[in-house]
């Protein structure tokens, strides 16, 4: 206001004049201290001078806060998901501004007459539009605000979520602007509300002609967002040089502390990263450069900009990189991100009896329960389900697909987890049949099962636990009665795990180069079974290997220590050869912030809307939502979601992993969860989950 910063009364938070600029400071306590965000917001009718002043103030505030905040440039109608998350009930845009004599008023106002056009489902915004039927369309919610009366008119093509978000906005206007003293009327079907329609006709006049059709939202799709490019920005002879240095997948070492960089996310968002030791001039020019970059690229002037300081990066920024390591970061419960072949996960014993009392532990450990439930296993044979002999439960062959149904009791009633295990050498037909049979099996259990897609070698923690240390994965072949190929005479298995909850044996090529000093290996020949104990293995690991040895071989067991192998051992492996023997390291990687998205696949384009700072309220029954916890991807299916999106859900999740800027592992487990039957390892990611909400 007159180029000065003037505080906005708290009652008016979320209401913005289109002719003005605003600055928003948001602080939040996190596990790593305080996260600070600074936004400057540009109204569509604000002057260039005001926009310049707002940018300047943000830079000054950033200095005062010692360069810790993440700074954002927000343009009306194109706000970032982070900005929208502050205004749970929606954002209201008002005509006018300070210059034309408008200001935010504290008192309860009743002499009001305005029409608000409400848009959005996860992120709601309401814009003042002309008081006329011409402003209406069939697909959105409109609020006619007459001070003491608020009439919510729902377009015939509105979704349940849009109607309920519209009502939340109407209530918040009543409560914050009118001190609770206003009536709300709802028109869901014009024929059923003659009295309210009469008021609308009095204000807007008679309606002539048809209403306009709904206007589809234009949003960046995932393919566009996956297109990340990194530019180096520097001065040369008083000129600014912008040079492209990398495309995805980006790695953290590209960012040098003495420079500034621009990261362009498909023109959907521009990030400016400022190195710790870059010059003051470079730091100061961050926004100016980003705006210049947008103009040079021919992007719309409304493109979102985020300015980030070295060492205080936002979660959004970090996840655009393949791997992001923090200095001196302590890990969560025995959780380590592995790199390459030699990374050892320190298993932390945790008390499974605590899972119910602490769902966040269930989420952290990726455990639904303590694994004491019942198991049934089927193999896909001739595209049908064939029961597997319980004596061989836990043995999986790479040439087959299996269905594993796990049943457990929670508050006295059965809950189901259905694992679809896909062998690396199974045919496409078998993999498809596996998915179809899973749907049938799910139907038999009242459509209540949580479905988990498991890729061979990427078995989730809980899957290991239910087989109680007896999980053996054979590279190829099949467990069917009529086997076409004879079993190999010599087999080598790598055993990993310290107790019944986390052990599995995986067949590896029977060659010396497969060995690793950190583990126990079983070498099964036609005469004997060797237990080879690497220097780095523990007593617990040796005990578990003995248990597995009885499954893979009926021959005598010989325990041998690394370095004391008999000649027969090397002979069976085809001679000595170098193998991995360095001590395993633990690479410290950022604790990944779980992220929630609404998925829509309506138009054949795959579009995801992120919900920042999510809670259970954000799961609407007509939604398909994706929760990404990095090691697993959950799909939450609302009761009223449309069939097309429901059927496309798994494809959407695969697409999400494929287009993820960080170059994600495509074998990440994908878990299908139905509304009302959420397991603990899903609900644990939400704060204060209410199991009775639905």
UniProtKB/TrEMBL annotation:
Fetch the PANTHER family from UniProt: VILLIN (PTHR11977), VILLIN-LIKE PROTEIN (PTHR11977:SF30)
As for subcellular location, the record says: Cytoplasm, Cytoskeleton
What Pfam family is a match for this entry?
Answer: Gelsolin
| Residue span(s) of domain Gelsolin-like | 3-83, 124-196, 246-318, 385-464, 503-553, 606-682
Principal cellular location given in the protein's record: cytoplasm
Please give the biological process terms from Gene Ontology that the record holds. actin filament severing; actin polymerization or depolymerization; barbed-end actin filament capping
Q: Keywords, A to Z?
A: Actin capping, Actin-binding, Calcium, Cytoplasm, Cytoskeleton, Repeat
From the Swiss-Prot or TrEMBL record, give the protein name: Villin-1
Look up keyword Repeat and say if it applies: yes
Per the record, the similarity remark reads: Belongs to the villin/gelsolin family.
* Domain of life assignment: Eukaryota
GO CC annotation: actin cytoskeleton; cytoplasm
GO molecular function list: actin filament binding; phosphatidylinositol-4,5-bisphosphate binding
